[in-house]
Amino acid sequence: MKLFFRLMAFSTAWLLASAVMTAPKAIATSVADPMAKVVWHVDFADSRRLSAMLQNVNNMVTTYQNKLEDYDIRIVFLAGGIRFVTQDPLKGTPFVEDPEYKKRRPELIQRLKQLQEMHGVKLELCEITREALNLAKEKIIPGVMPVRSGVVRIAELQHQGFAYLKIE
Question: Please, is 14 exposed, middle or buried when counting C-beta atoms within 10 Å of its C-beta (0-12, 13-18, 19+)?
Answer without folding.
Answer: exposed
